[in-house]
Amino acid sequence: MNSIKGSWAALITPFTKNDQIDFAALERLLDMHLTAKTDGLVICGTTGESATLNFDEKKALMKAVTAKVAGKIAIMFGTGSNDTRATCELTEKAADLGAESVLVVTPYYNKPPQEGLKRHFKAVAASTSLPVVLYNVPGRTGCNMLADTTLELAEVSNIVAVKEASGNLEQAMEIIRRAPTGFTLLSGEDALNLPIMACGGVGTISVTANVAPRMMKQFNDAALNGDWNTARAIHFKLLELHRGLFVETNPLPTKAALANRGLISDFARLPLCQPSAITLELMKKIATGLE
Fold this sequence. Notes:
- The chain is α/β, with parallel strands linked by helices.
- It has a single domain (6-230), classed as Alpha-Beta Barrel (TIM Barrel), CATH 3.20.20.70.
- It has helices spanning 23-36, 55-69, 84-93, 114-126, 138-141, 147-153, 169-178, 193-198, 213-224, 228-244, 252-260, 277-287, and strands spanning 6-10, 40-43, 74-78, 101-105, 132-136, 159-164, 184-187, 203-206.
- An 8-stranded parallel sheet has the order 7-6-5-4-3-2-1-8.
- Helix 7 (169-178) links the parallel strand 6 and strand 7.
- The longest helix is centred in the last third of the chain and has 17 residues, at 228-244.
């Protein structure tokens, strides 16, 4: 059931100056990932500004992506929210929208206890037959899902992986060390991709893969094949970019880097806004030539 591994991009959602989804720009981004042979795309995740997308927009995005890449690139749909019922309802629709798996973030703002997290994710998993990937990103949600909680949830048959973005390498190692057969960990913290993969991570769900998809694919392929000299060299070449893409709130630096290449306009949806001139210049400096 779990074939979720390799280089996944947490895809941005491009917007026009009129605050509409820019489907022409989306087409260009998908062409780039097809050329790079990206293994998978996460649609409507954090980097895709999912919190500001309504259902019709999410449906339209999924339709456009599946029409372009289905059968060529795996598609994961971000269905998580801070409302368990709403998350279950969207997750129930995921397969019909073309998703092959779902990414479910820990509920934000509510700050649930660990028991609440267990009940939330078990309810979500029960609402679908699709593979469920947990998403732990306490810097966004104000809630860290502990290793013991993740490992209990790993016993649910269709909860198959966790995107671990806590920045806590020890926590990631504990999950990998004790994970049951069939449950895996993917790095959600680009600056830690190399050590996480070296400890047994099976892939990355990456912001950097928006900007350097070819290199992220090469990094993952090298790591999964045990070619650590190549993986290390690519990781260090990308390290400044990994860090730079978070000098402002994600995805603003990513949009700046892609706008510099003429692939998108650098518009974000409020309460996010356009990246600063400083960020635009920084991306010209550190993202040029890294594709």
